[in-house]
UniProtKB/TrEMBL annotation, chain A:
This is Coiled-coil-helix-coiled-coil-helix domain-containing protein 1-like. Residues 47-81 form the CHCH domain. GO terms for cellular component: mitochondrial ribosome; nucleoplasm. Keywords: Disulfide bond. One of its GO terms (molecular function) is RNA binding.
Automatic annotation (TrEMBL), chain B:
Transmembrane segments: none annotated. PANTHER family: RIBOSOMAL PROTEIN S7. Keywords: Mitochondrion, Ribonucleoprotein, Ribosomal protein, Transit peptide. It is found in: Mitochondrion. The keyword Ribosomal protein applies. One of its GO terms (biological process) is translation. Gene3D superfamilies: Ribosomal protein S7 domain (1.10.455.10). It holds the Pfam family Ribosomal_S7. This is Small ribosomal subunit protein uS7m. Belongs to the universal ribosomal protein uS7 family. One of its GO terms (cellular component) is mitochondrial small ribosomal subunit. Residues 62-221 form the Small ribosomal subunit protein uS7 domain.
Amino acid sequence: MPGRDPAAMASQGVALQQKLGRMLSKSVGKPVLKPNKPLALKDEATCITEMSLLMACWKENDFSDAACSSEVRAFFKCAEKAEAARKAEKGTTVGQKGILHPKQANSLLRRYPNQYKEI
Amino acid sequence: MAAFTATLLKPWTPRVLQIRWSRYNPYYLEPEPRKEVYSTPETELTPEQLKERELKSVRPIKAAPPVVHSSVFSDPMISKFINMMMKGGNKILARNIMLQTLENIKRKQVEKYHKAPDAEKAGIECNPYVIFHQALANCKPVIGLVTIQRGSRHYQVPTPLTDNRQRFVAMKWMIAECRENKHRRTLMDEKLAQELLAAFANKGPVVKKKFELHKMAEANRAFAHYRWW
């Protein structure tokens, strides 16, 4: 990515973790954050590191696929894993927000409908 | 008049009855096109496979679609290419074009082989199927671009492509290139043979298009974080 230095980003990450610790703890006054779910980024783009490595290799070797074959393979592997993870997550009943997806709720209710008449 | 009204009272049946449906009862089993499965004797099968065979004698089996082959010459990639070339359901014409293309490739390569000096003869590939697969593999893009809207602006975001999508895009580019950017009077099989041989050697307009897509993706790498999947 243009204009980002990995060492600076690492130090920023450490400082962020410390600040987060202070916001969650009860020893330093009232806790500012009270998360009821684990803290994680909601939507994260997958395989960014592999993509950036591949593009760096392309830039050096004038976009030849033969020279960058290992990076290409790594990128494909990462893409496959991300796709498999997404497929696995799709099937689970309770989604990220802790509630059912409307389509899943509809299909469940269709299987066990309300009884209006006594059989 | 009476005869005519009598025909109206007859129960209507369609003239042509379908035998191959797209939605079958769940107890219908899948057809098995591979010949090896039928030639293995009972001793070599696992208990599950024996059970499956017994089940096949009782349950009905779905009608095999024309895509499914049992011949040694069937190649799923070539079938897909033929289907993509087909216009208006004319599979016969599309298949003939494909076979003629493969023959043209073979002829050109054999001519090259015989004209080449002995040192280079080993390096010349004469198998048209190998050339076809390698040419399409050389045309497949590694990374694709997706339009994502952020605010009012639309950005081209680089994203990984699935295997199916890559194959589809490579074939589409090849066919479009041959249909549009060639001289009107050249036949499709000639054009395709030329393009496939060029792609096999990593030259030609289709491979150039792939490289341009890669360059665009590399230029737009800053927007990669706009993806959310």
